[in-house]
């Protein structure tokens, strides 16, 4: 369960590592990449007969494709290589790969051939990789549309052509892979925005390179290994006072359910006591589904709390801004979500108070809320989600999760993490409220804020994944269903952590320390 840390590098970082290694690499990096891609292809289509089509482009990604073609042909597979550029224009290493492929008996066609009667066993996109900075047009765009239409496994080398490797934004025509073999390390665009819809299953081939040894990583893929050290069994001699007092502030008229969802999520993750402060004057005095929750008027929450979340169902009218100002003044870990973020974006005085807080602050915006906080627009945020998340963390001196496909956790010191758990069924009402409750529950129990946010984000998606495996969702999944599943996943993590040997050495990129 606990996978090793997986670093993520933007294109500039990958280029820096390559520049350090290429002059003296033996065997050359392109040879290693093509060989690794061929090995992935063999595993992928071991039981599929028929020829393999590899579309090679005019740069080093095409060179990877030529090496792959040579390796596959030498392994006895029938290979068809399509290449429409001039060999003399290839970069030096790609030109050598092209020549080596021909010398080994390979042949090349200048246009995509029609599929054989029984179809291709595999089609491979080796057109442009990570270096693309403009939309793909003309013949290559036509090739991509044809490759995407093939009813067989579709494999991309490094990054699907047409996908921005840093942002996950499609640049015009974009290859839609069922499998992507990426080299050296993960890239942000594979994991966020439209990346997951174009990459399919991702295989990271390190090609004998320990990337962090050459360039320390600022970004990592979120995995349980980032917070494994905090998954400790509870002693039998214990009581609820040891597990914190959490509070949720919100629940204005017509939106009480949002606050209850957050409160239930905190309760079901093991928080000692959970208070829910409601702004609705006609709000309930008890949650009959979960009477363990202590419902209060917003202004009567206890002074002594371990952690507080404000925003679920808060609204932006009436006393909401005053309630937010009071929350910001509390010297405890504070999570701000939903309308708390909208109030902040509209009030410079509240933003100034936020930036001077001494205690930890967590912001959980979706793209539209992030845009308001940045004085931008949603399209700009989505065009570069990593940049937006890092700017929010820096500007507000807060931990941030920019929610969405491939949620990004960013820290004020410019470290970042991308989450891969979860699915499209989570695009439903109340999911953000549940996430707020999960993170607040961990904060109340004394988890370091960065670890609490990372674990809460990952747990939320993992709960939805478990439900989908059980046939509950993805379509029609409700937020309340993920609360019970999150408890189950979390307890599973605890059991698994107890079974595994402890490693007292470095285990995370400063997470939770």
UniProtKB/TrEMBL annotation:
InterPro entries documented for this protein: Carbohydrate_kinase_pred_CS (IPR017953), CARKD (IPR000631), Nnr (IPR030677), Ribokinase-like (IPR029056), YjeF_N_dom (IPR004443), YjeF_N_dom_sf (IPR036652)
Limits of the YjeF N-terminal domain = 14-215
Q: Where does (6S)-NADPHX bind?
A: 60-64, 129-135, 140, 158, 258, 313, 366, 433
Cofactor(s) annotated in UniProt: K(+); Mg(2+)
Give the YjeF C-terminal domain ranges. Answer: 223-493
KW RNA-binding (keyword) present: no
One GO MF term: ADP-dependent NAD(P)H-hydrate dehydratase activity
Entry binding sites for AMP: 403-407, 432
For this protein, what reaction is catalysed? (6R)-NADHX = (6S)-NADHX; (6S)-NADPHX + ADP = AMP + phosphate + NADPH + H(+); (6S)-NADHX + ADP = AMP + phosphate + NADH + H(+); (6R)-NADPHX = (6S)-NADPHX
**Which UniProt keyword terms apply here?**
ATP-binding, Isomerase, Kinase, Lyase, Metal-binding, Multifunctional enzyme, NAD, NADP, Nucleotide-binding, Potassium, Transferase
Q: How is the cofactor bound?
A: Binds 1 potassium ion per subunit.
Binding-site residues for K(+), renumbered to this chain: 61, 125, 161
**One Pfam family, short name:** Carb_kinase
Gene Ontology annotations of biological process type: metabolite repair; nicotinamide nucleotide metabolic process
User: Which residues lie in coiled coils?
Assistant: none
Q: List the EC numbers from the record.
A: 4.2.1.136, 5.1.99.6
Query: Which family would the database say this protein is a member of?
Result: Belongs to the NnrD/CARKD family. Belongs to the NnrE/AIBP family.
Q: What does this protein do?
A: Catalyzes the epimerization of the S- and R-forms of NAD(P)HX, a damaged form of NAD(P)H that is a result of enzymatic or heat-dependent hydration. This is a prerequisite for the S-specific NAD(P)H-hydrate dehydratase to allow the repair of both epimers of NAD(P)HX.
Query: What interactions and quaternary structure are annotated?
Result: Homotetramer.
The name of this protein is Bifunctional NAD(P)H-hydrate repair enzyme
Q: State the organism named in the record.
A: Thauera aminoaromatica S2
């Amino acid at each position: 369960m606990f996978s090793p840390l997986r670093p993520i590098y933007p294109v500039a970082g990958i280029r820096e590592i390559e520049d350090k290694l290429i002059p003296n690499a033996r065997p050359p990096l392109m040879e290693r990449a093509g060989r690794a891609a061929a090995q992935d292809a063999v595993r992928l289509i071991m039981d599929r007969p028929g020829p393999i089509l590899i579309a090679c482009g005019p740069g080093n990604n095409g060179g990877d494709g030529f090496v792959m073609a040579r390796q596959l042909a030498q392994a006895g597979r029938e290979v068809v290589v399509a290449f429409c550029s001039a060999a003399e224009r290839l970069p030096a290493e790609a030109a050598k790969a092209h020549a080596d492929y021909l010398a080994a008996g390979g042949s090349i066609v200048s246009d995509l051939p029609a599929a054989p009667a029984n179809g291709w066993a595999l089609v491979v996109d080796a057109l442009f990789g990570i270096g693309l900075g403009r939309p793909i047009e003309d013949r290559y765009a036509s090739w991509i549309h044809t490759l995407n239409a093939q009813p067989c496994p579709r494999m991309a080398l490094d990054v699907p052509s047409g996908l921005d490797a840093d942002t996950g934004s499609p640049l015009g025509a974009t290859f839609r892979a069922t499998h992507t073999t990426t080299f050296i390390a993960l890239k942000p665009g594979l994991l966020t925005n439209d990346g997951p819809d174009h990459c399919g299953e991702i295989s990271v081939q390190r090609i004998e390179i320990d990337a962090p040894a050459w360039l320390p990583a600022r970004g990592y893929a979120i995995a349980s290994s980032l917070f494994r050290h905090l998954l400790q069994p509870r002693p039998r001699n214990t009581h609820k006072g040891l597990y914190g007092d959490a509070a949720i502030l919100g629940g204005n008229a017509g939106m009480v359910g949002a606050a209850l969802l957050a409160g239930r999520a905190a309760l079901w993750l093991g928080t000692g006591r959970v208070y829910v402060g409601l702004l609705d004057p006609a709000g309930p005095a008890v949650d009959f589904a979960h009477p363990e929750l202590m419902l209060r008027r917003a202004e009567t929450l206890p002074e002594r709390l371990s952690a507080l979340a404000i925003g679920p169902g808060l609204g932006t009218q009436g006393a909401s801004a005053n309630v937010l100002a009071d929350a910001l003044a509390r010297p405890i870990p504070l999570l701000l979500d939903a309308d708390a973020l909208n109030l902040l974006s509209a009030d410079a005085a509240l933003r100034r108070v936020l930036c001077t807080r001494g205690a930890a602050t967590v912001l959980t915006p979706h793209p539209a809320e992030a845009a308001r906080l940045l004085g931008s627009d949603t399209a700009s945020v989505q065009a570069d989600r990593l940049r937006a998340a890092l700017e929010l963390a820096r500007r507000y001196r807060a931990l941030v999760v920019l929610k969405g496909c491939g949620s990004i956790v960013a820290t004020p010191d410019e470290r970042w993490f991308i989450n891969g758990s979860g699915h499209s069924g989570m695009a439903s009402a109340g999911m953000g409220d549940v996430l707020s409750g999960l993170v607040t529950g961990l904060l109340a129990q004394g988890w370091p804020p960065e670890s609490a946010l990372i674990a809460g984000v990952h747990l939320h998606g993992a709960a939805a994944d478990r439900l989908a495996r059980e046939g509950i969702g993805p379509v029609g999944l409700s937020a309340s269903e993920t609360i019970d599943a999150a408890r189950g996943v979390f307890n599973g993590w605890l059991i698994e952590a107890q079974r595994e040997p402890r490693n007292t050495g470095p285990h995370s990129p400063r997470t939770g320390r």
